[in-house]
Amino acid sequence: xxxxxxxxxxxxxxxxxxxxxxxxxxxxxxxxxxxxxxxxxxxxxxxxxxxxxxxxxxxxxxxxxxxxxxxxxxxxxxxxxxxxxxxxxxxxxxxxxxxxxxxxxxxxxxxxxxxxxxxxxxxxxxxxxxxxxxxxxxxxxxxxxxxxxxxxxxxxxxxxxxxxxxxxxxxxxxxxxxxxxxxxxxxxxxxxxxxxxxxxxxxxxxxxxxxxxxxxxxxxxxxxxxxxxxxxxxxxxxxxxxxxxxxxxxxxxxxxx
Length: 257
Description:
Helices cover 26% and strands 25% of the residues. It is of the alpha+beta class.
C-alpha cells in the first residue's frame, strides 16, 4: 500500500479544491425543494462547476458514470444517478460533489431534508452527521484508522442504526480514489496509523434498518436491501501535525472551524 503524503504546495491545492466542492453544496441549497428533479440539480451544479468555478466535475464519465453529481434520496445509500424523478415533501436527499481544480480533487456530500420528514428520518440524518464528526474529531498523528471506524460504528449503534460495510472513505489527492481505504467500522488496534500530510474522506453511510445493500441494474445505484432509509455526510480531511483540518468545511458548519 502506497499512501501519498502531500507536500505544502499540494496541500494548498487541496484546500482550494475542497473549498470549491463546499461552495457547490452551498450554492445548490436554495434549489433543493419540492418539485425539482435531481436531473435539474445536476444541471445547475454542472454549470456552476464548469462555468463559474472553471473546474471539472469528477464523477462525469468516471468509469462510465453519466452525470456530474450523485443524488441519493431516501433508501438510496450512494451513487444515485440524477434523473427525472421530482423531490417531494418528506424526502431526504444526499448530494455528493467532487470537483477537480489544478489537478487535485475535493470531495464532499451533504444531506438535505425536503419539507419536514418523519421524526425517524430527521434523527437518522442528524445521527449520520454526528457519526462522521465522531470520526473526524479523532484525527491526529498516531491514531489508527480502525479506532476511527470503531468509534463511528459505536455511535450509530447507540441509535439502533447500522453502518454500511461495502462502501468506505478513501485517500484523495491527484486521484479521485487513493490509498488508504477508510472503513467506518473496525477494531481500535487495527488499520493504518495516521501521519501528517495524509488526505482522505470520511463518509459513513448509516441505515435506519439493517446494513445490507443491493446494487441496482444500472450498476451504480446502491440501495438498502430492506428498503429502509439511509443517510450519509462526507468531508475531505487533512491530517496536520497536531490534529486535523476539514478541507471541505462549509461556512454554515461552525463546529468544524
